[in-house]
Design brief:
single chain; about 140 residues; mainly alpha; 2 domains; cell projection; coiled coil
Length: about 140
């Protein structure tokens, strides 16, 4: 859904709100599980150790729930990673990339259409795995 355009779409806001609710729910569950109250978490979150580059990378998903710009950057990056993964799969299966991925052509041959089908299947599988994981988490709670 997310692209690298400067202007954000309305659908981004809806997804962001769902993301915020999910992060809040997961964080509350985790804090309860490990026996840390919100106040202690806030202290740890604002400690100097939490400000290191490594800690910031780990906490990025939590921080993104409070910062739409960071959330959008994270989603755009994830889309790029998924596209690159799909391109690698296409290249592995065929040995080369189709012309439409190398010279900007919009005309798809039969092979290229099959490759697009593979790309859609990779994205569908990724979404399916995500939904299964979310359902598993809901069941555990």
């Amino acid at each position: 859904v997310f692209d690298d355009e400067e202007e954000s779409k309305l659908s981004y806001t809806e997804i962001y709100q769902e993301y915020q609710a999910l992060v809040e729910k997961l964080l509350e569950g985790y804090l309860k599980e490990v026996g840390i109250n919100e106040e202690k978490f806030q202290e740890a979150f604002s400690s100097p150790l939490a400000k290191t580059h490594t800690s910031q990378a780990v906490l990025q998903t939590v921080l993104a729930a409070e910062d739409f710009r960071l959330f959008k950057e994270m989603m755009v990056q994830k889309n790029i990673e998924m596209q690159l993964q799909a391109i690698r799969i296409i290249k592995e299966r065929n040995g080369v990339l189709p012309d439409c991925l190398t010279d900007g052509s919009d005309v798809f041959s039969e092979i290229e259409q099959q490759e697009m089908k593979i790309l859609r299947e990779v994205l569908r599988k990724s979404k399916e795995e995500y939904e299964i994981e979310q359902e598993r988490k809901r069941t555990e709670e």
